[in-house]
Amino acid sequence: MSEQNARLRADVCVIGGGPGGLMLGLQLARRGHRVVVVEQSARYKRHFRGESVSPDSVRLLHRLGLMDTIAARGDFARTTRFEISDGGAPALRVDFRDISPDGSLPTEIPQQVLLEVLAEEAARHPGFTLLRRSSVIDLLSSADGRITGARCTGADGPLDIHADLTVGADGRFSSVLELSGLPFSKRPLGRDVLWFKVPLPDAWDDDTVRVRIDRDRHALMLPTHPRSLRVGLNIPKGGLKQVRAQGLAALHGQITAFAPELGPAVRTHLTRWSDLSLLDIFTTSVPRWSRPGLVLIGDAAHTLSPILGQGVNHALMDALALAPLVSRALAAPDRHRQLTAAVTRFQKLREPAVERTRRTQSAQERAFGLASAPAVRVRQQAYRLVDSQPWLKHWLWRRIYYPLRLA
Ligand SMILES: Cc1cc2nc3c(=O)[nH]c(=O)nc-3n(C[C@H](O)[C@H](O)[C@H](O)COP(=O)(O)OP(=O)(O)OC[C@H]3O[C@@H](n4cnc5c(N)ncnc54)[C@H](O)[C@@H]3O)c2cc1C
C-alpha cells in the first residue's frame, strides 16, 4: 500500500499545528530547513483553548517581533492583577506590575490569533509547508527501528512524509505518543472544568483575573479580548451528566453563587449546552520524550493541569529550546547521531521547568480540593499569610510567572 502513497521529503516533519508545532516550524524554517507541519483541522478557529499566555512567553514573542504583529491586530488583553477570594472574602492579591522584571504581563491572546500569526510568519520562508486537513495515522521506521517519518491521510489521499526527525506536537490526545511505543502514564485529576464565555460585566475592570473558592469548589474568571470573560467552573470528575440532569437554571445558580455580577450575562448568553466546553483534566507523564528519529513537545510530552495557564507557555518554550539544537544537528555530517543527542539534550534542558510547574499545580490542586472546615480555614490562613508578606508573595509569583532569565 505504501508504494502507492504520495511521498514528501523534509528535514523535519512536525505533527500538529498548535502553538508548539507552529513555533517549531517557524523557527526551523527561519534557519533554512525544510519543515512540513501536518495539522488535522481545516481552520484555526478554536474555542476555549489556551488564551492566557504567560509573561515569559510574551517576552519571547516580543523578542521575535511577533507580539508587534499581534498588537497591530489589536487582538489581545493584558492582565495586571490576580485576586483570590476564599469563602466570600478576599484572600490574596497580586499586581503583576510589582513583580515583572521588564513590564511584561500575562496576556490573553485568542489562540486563533496566535496560530494565524505564527503560520503567516512561517509561510514567508520557502522551506515551510503547512498541510491542513491531514492526520497522522502511522509512523514510518527503518529496519533498525529508527523513526523515519509519518504516514498521513489528507485532502488528497494518503501521503508518506520522510524526514530526518519527526516531532509529535499533537497535543493532549497525542496519536504520535500512542504510536511511538514510548511508555507514558495518565493521571486524571479529581475534577473537570466547564468553560464558557460571556460579556464582561460593566462593573468589572478588564485586567483582573479572579479566582473564587468556596470549600472544594472554585471558579476562574479571566477577562479576555474583546471585552469578554472566560469562565472555568470546576465540577466533580465525570460530573457533567449530573449537571445536565439538573438543568441550565441550576447551573446559572451555581455560577452566580460564585459571582452574583454574572447573573444577567449567564441568563442571556448561556442558554444551550453547546455554549459550554468540557475540559477533562488529566496530566500525562512521559519519562522519555524521544527515541531515535522522534521527539515529543508541548502537551504531547507533558499535558499539564490548566491551573496558572502554563500549557501554551511550555509548548512555546519547548519549540524555542528544540529548534537551535535540531538545526545544529541537521548541519552535522552525522546528522542522525547528532539528532538523537539533540533531542536527549532537549529533554534535559526543558524537563526541570515543566516539573516545577507540575509541582506547583499539584500543590494548588490539593489546596482547591480541601473540603472540611478546619482544612479550609488553614487554606484561607495560608493565602492571607502569603498576602501579608509582599517579599514572599512576589518571590512565589515570580517563580511561577517569570522564571526565565533573559540576557
Ligand atoms: C479548555 C482549555 C483551556 C485552556 N486554557 C489555557 C490557558 O488559558 N492558558 C494556557 O497556557 N493553556 C491553556 N490550555 C492548554 C493549552 O491549550 C495547551 O497546553 C496548548 O495548546 C498546548 O500546545 P500544543 O502545541 O502542545 O498542543 P495543541 O495546542 O493541543 O495543538 C495540537 C495540534 O495537533 C493537532 N492534531 C491532533 N492530533 C493530530 C493528528 N493525529 N494529526 C494531525 N494533527 C493533529 C490538533 O488539531 C492541534 O491543532 C487550555 C486547554 C483547554 C483544553
Automatic annotation (TrEMBL):
FAD-binding domain segment(s): 10-329
Domain of life from the UniProt record? Bacteria
The cross-references to InterPro entries, in alphabetical order and at most eight, read: FAD-bd (IPR002938), FAD/NAD-bd_sf (IPR036188), PheA/TfdB_FAD_monoxygenase (IPR050631)
Does Oxidoreductase appear among the keywords?
A: yes
Q: Which UniProt keywords apply?
A: Oxidoreductase
Pfam families in alphabetical order = FAD_binding_3
The answer, when asked if Transmembrane is one of the entry's keywords, is no
Name this protein carries in UniProt: FAD-dependent oxidoreductase
Q: Which organism is it from?
A: Streptomyces coacervatus
Classification from the root reads:
Bacteria, Bacillati, Actinomycetota, Actinomycetes, Kitasatosporales
